[in-house]
Design goal:
The chain has helices at 23-72, 81-118. By secondary structure, it is mainly α.
């Protein structure tokens, strides 16, 4: 005579969830936590970006030397006054271009955030 598998005992009933914090308070705590996480990540990324920008600025002379060697292969000389003027002009525009790019990125992120929060 073969016996079938033994039935497993039923699990004890799960007690009902007790609300220790009202729903509005829980939402506020969650939102504050999410905001802190977002602020922390943003701060970390900005710190890394500033470090990278500093390293780039420190390496510009070496990069220009390397670019000068490469450009001479194509007949472009960095000691040419016209080339120097174009380089100065590009370097003078760089901070404004960077600032407007960062502003545009934050504007897009703000718009996406506002749109998502309306849903």
């Amino acid at each position: 005579m073969t016996e079938g598998p033994h039935p497993t005992p039923a699990a004890p009933p799960v007690p009902p969830v007790v609300e220790a914090v009202p729903r509005g308070g829980a939402v506020a705590v969650f939102a504050a936590g999410a905001l802190l996480v977002f602020a922390g990540i943003t701060t970390l990324l900005l710190c890394l970006a500033v470090q990278q920008a500093g390293q780039l600025v420190r390496s510009v002379p070496q990069l220009l030397d390397q670019a000068s060697v490469q450009a001479e292969r194509f007949g472009i000389r960095f000691d040419d006054p016209q080339v120097q003027q174009r380089l100065r002009s590009a370097l003078e525009r760089a901070p404004a271009l960077l600032a407007s790019s960062i502003g545009a990125i934050y504007g897009v992120l703000g718009g996406v955030s506002a749109r998502c929060s309306r849903r």
